Every structure is written in structure tokens, then in C-alpha cells.
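Escalation from tier 1.

The customer reports that the assembly of two entities below gives different C-alpha cells on two consecutive runs. Tier 1 could not reproduce it. I'm attaching the input and our single run for tier 2 to review.
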Amino acid sequence: MIQTIKTVKYAFYILFHPNDGFWELKNHMPKTLGAANLILALLCFMNVLSIQFTSFHYGILDRDSNNIIFNVSSFVVPLAAWTILNWALSTLLDGKATMKQIWVQSIYSLVPVLLSMPVLMICSYIMTHEEATFYYLISSIAVIWSVFLFLVGNMTIQDYTMRKTILMALFTIAGIAASIFIGIILFSTFQQLISFITTVITEIRFMP
Amino acid sequence: MKKRLTALILAVPLLLGMAPYSTYNFSPVDETAHAMLDCMVPVKVITGVDLGAGDLDKPNDFRFGLDGFAYIADTNNDRILVLDSELNLLKIISGFVYGGQQHTFNRPEGVFAEEDGTIFIADTQNRRVVVLDAEGNLVTLMDSVELTGSMLTFRPQKVVADTAGHVYVVGAGSTEGLIQLTREGEFVRFFGSNRVRPNPIEVIYRMFLTRAQRQAREQFVPTEFSNAHVDDMGFLYVTTRNTRTLQVRRLNAIGGDVLRHDGIGEEVYGDITSTTARVGTMAQFQSVSTDSDENIYALDNSTGRVFVYDNTGQMLFMFGGRGNQIGLFSDAQAIDVRDGRAYVLCAGRGNLTIFELTDYGSKILLANHLYTMGEYEESIAPWREVLKMDSGNTLAWSALGQAYYGRKDYAAAMEYFKLGMDREGYSQAFGQLRNEWFKRYFSPLVIGTLLLIAGINVAVRLVKKAKKRRAQA
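Tier 1 run:
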């Protein structure tokens, strides 16, 4: 447990030293999976908190329609999709990372966003709309930083060049889109299959 | 017998004060419609037979003249009906004498009357505007009007005159704006044309076309006006068809739009989301009218709904709809408002439906009128009554927030703005509260910060000293 927390704390080093940091994380840090999942849990928790407790004038208007399951899956599902697709593609294009390492690296890259959440939440109680520029500046810095870490991290653990990393990222996104498409087709096909079977069963049951 | 029974059944909602539509307004949360109590309900339907004038055939215009009489342009019967303020038939105008000859109308689509009873008739298929005095004698015949600098032929559909002596004509196919005439029927200019908003994709696409191809494509032309209305102050209101934005506008003397468009939909009037509109249809505003408090009643022909806005463009409520029951229309063409009653003319059925404000509706109008006049304090009581009847009215909560903001009770204002889903108001009230807090705690805050810095300094020094001593030891 102490090891895990130590590994979590290593995220602060990665923030400013992404190249060394991710390399170290991949090759020498213990319990990275547990640490990453802990960060992900924190991220989901902070997200729910910030949606619920951001001051009214910066938050969402309709808190009643807030759905924790949706909030959590809005982080977990894209991350999982990214991990699977990125791994699947990188194995074909001589990437050096395992699926676990991609998962860990992606979550560690989101640390700036995680850190910005409480800051933004507190700011929403201090700032009016006139200072909204600063508010959105903070959040966009966090997002840009995260994207930067995402790319550098992926480059480090896959042992790619930056160009290849960006290309791979685009491929991965295309892959995610394709798999969503296939998923929808599968879903609707199965739906039709099921409805066909139930219709046949009903027909047989009520046959005169 | 059967007819009478149907009439009785149809009349039941009238007796109960129910409406065959559910009133709504758009929510600031997600812009979907949320139901509210009915604000205007149908109380009476008048047909041509009721008036004693025979069936109306596709009547296109109903308007109260400034003389207090009501006028109906009974288009396909080629006549104008004049009614008194109680809607009893006074006379039927079906023609006039000009040059010793009896002239008749041909499909007149618009009518307008001034204080002295001068009647302007848009004699559409005859391509002229006929001006008659109160006795029905011809004053001016605005015939063969030359629209200088335009390919358009003069085919007037609606006509209004303002107090300054200008005559404005809504011409069929007139994309250049209202046609402004002198009282003698001379063309002055096109007035207040709609701005063209080119579609960006189309603009880029056109860059790759040759000149001939470009000319073959549909041109960017402004949409044409569908109707005009002059309010008590002399402002001109216009409606536009076949467009999704700025369908209702208030024009000043130089044709500029002076409506603030402050509502949730901003420049979009009518149904702002597809939850209430029929899929694939566009609001087709056909007529507009104002009441004495400058509230705007805009009639959407496509859904048959009348949307009521205040003078900033904020939607208050709606009424009417499409259908067969009383209070619904098949082809609503004109609306006019007077003394808390709204009169909607349905061309499809050839009848006039009279709507009356409910208790709730009149409270909203009263409260909102005081509110828009800036009398926030006076508006508190009526808003509270509105909320007593319908606590989900976000408009009322937000107005209360503004009132308490005016009282400098910022904490209460924040609470009300929150209930009214008004982020901007909340932010402002919060800013004021923050200022107050700063003022009150300024000196303790400064002293506290200084003390804190000094304390940290001292602590750091002590720690350093202790370390040194330990090192020496």
C-alpha cells in the first residue's frame, strides 16, 4: 500500500519531467497498476464532486439530471477504448508497450486535469463571470498539459518518434470510431435477431 | 340535432375555461419546453354567419383600426367587413366609385384604418392600395406604383400607416423590404430590409465555381416580410417567413432593428428546440401585434401557436395550436390584441377566435410589465402571486432576484437567481456580495496576511537557528 502511494506521488515528478518520468514509471516503478487505478478513482470522485459542488454560476444548471454512472463511465470508457485500440495498433507497428503500461500511462497523463478540478471548484466560489477568462484559462492549461503528457508519455513507452506518436494517436482515434460503428451495427443486428426469435416464439405459442 | 350536440360538446371546454393546448415556455436549463398553467384561453368563436355576413372565404387580415373599429379582409369574397368594437357588423365594403365607375376589389389581403376612419385596403390581385374615407368615398388610389430601381411588380398584401404620415406596404415577393409610400401613393424607398446571412459552406463552395455556375445557383436573397404592425408609440413591427432567426423585429425610423432579442432563444423566435416543433418544419410567422404594455404577440402559421414576448424579446408564454378544437387553427393568418383579449383569424375555417387572459396570465403580464419598466420593488408582490400559482416559473424567480438585487439584499438575490436558473444574475449578485465582504473585512484581512507572513518568517528563522545549533552540537 505504501509502495502504491509512493508510485502515485511519482505523478508529480512526471508532471515536469515527462520523458524521464514515464520511462522510470514503465521500467522501474512497482505497483503501477494499483497506483493508476487509484488515480482514476480519484479522478472520477473529483469529477463527481466538482459537478456537484461547483458554484451555481459556473456549474451545470440542472443538477437533478446528474448521473454518477454516466460521469464515471465518461472517463473509464474512453480510457479503456484508447488503451485497447492503441495497444492493438502498436503491436502491429512495433510499439514497445504492453496494454497495462498504456493504461497506466494514459491515467498518469490525466493528472493535470485531476489537479485542476479542486482549483477550479474553489475558484468558482471566488470568481464572478467577469473573471471567467482566468477560470477558463486554468482549465484549458490543464487540458493542454494533459494532452502534452499523453503524447510524450505514449512516445516514451512505445519508443516512437513524436511524428509516429501523433500518427498513431490519429489512427487510434479512427480505430475507436470504427469500433464504435461496428459496435452499433452489432448491437442493432442482435436486437433484430432477438426480436425475430421472440416473434417466432410468439407465433409458435399462439399457433391455432 | 346532431349539429347542436357537436356544438355543445365543443363548447364544454369554453364553459370550463380549459384550453385544448398545453401552455409552455422554454427552460433556461436546456431550452426544452416546460409546461405551465394556461395564460390565455379561448372564450368565443365568431364565424361570418354569426356576424350576419355569410361565410367568410379565406379571410386574410383582421385588425383593429385606430378608430376603434375592427376590420376583416374577407379575401376570397372580395370584400372588407367593418365591425364595431363589440364585433357587431357595421357595414360591408365591396367596392368604391372612381371616375364615375363602380370598382370592386380582387382578393384583398390586407386592411388598416386610421383614427379618422380612413381605410387602407391592400387590393392584392388588382395591384393597388385603395384609400377610402369613413363614408367609403375614395380618397386616393395607389395604382401602378413604380418601384424605382427594382424588377418587382407592386402587389400589396398588407398595408399600414404610421402617425408620421408614411404608408408601408408588404409586397408579395418584395425581398428588398417594406415598400414605403407617401400618402399620395408615390414610391419613396424600400424600408428595413432583412439582412442576408450567407451560409459559410456555400460561400466556400462558390469560390470553386465559374461565373456561369455561380449565377445558375440559387442567389442569396433576403427573405421577404409577411406582415407589419404599428404600435401605439408609432414603432413598426415586422414578421418574416422562411427564416429561422429574427422573424420578429421592431424597426425604428431608419429601418434598423431596435428589438433587444434578450430571450432564451436570442434571435430565434417561436419554437427554439425541436421538442415542440414538428420535425423538419420551420416557424412561419404570419402576423404580429402588440398590447398596451408593448408585449409582442407573434403568430406562427406553421404550428398555429401565438408566442407572447415582452418588449425585450423575452418569451412569456404561448397559446393556440393546430387542430380542430376551439382554440386551435388550421391556417391562422392574423392576430390582433386589445384590452387583454387576443383575436386570431383562421383563414382555413373562416372564423375568428377570441382568447382571454386567465388570472395567471394577467398576473404574469402585470408583474413583467412593472419589471420591464424598472419598477422592481412594485413587481415583487405580483411575481410572488405568480409563484403561488406556479412555483416552477423561472422567469418569476429570476425577476425576484433582480428585485432583491435592487434592494441590495444580495444573498437573497443569489438564492432567487438560482431558483430562476439565471447564472448571469447570480454571478452579479455574488460579485456584489464579495465586494461587501471585502469592504467589511479589508483591515482584518490585510493585518492577518501581514501577521501570517511575519509569523512564517519568524518560524523559518527559528527552525534554521535550531538546525544550526544541532549541527554545531
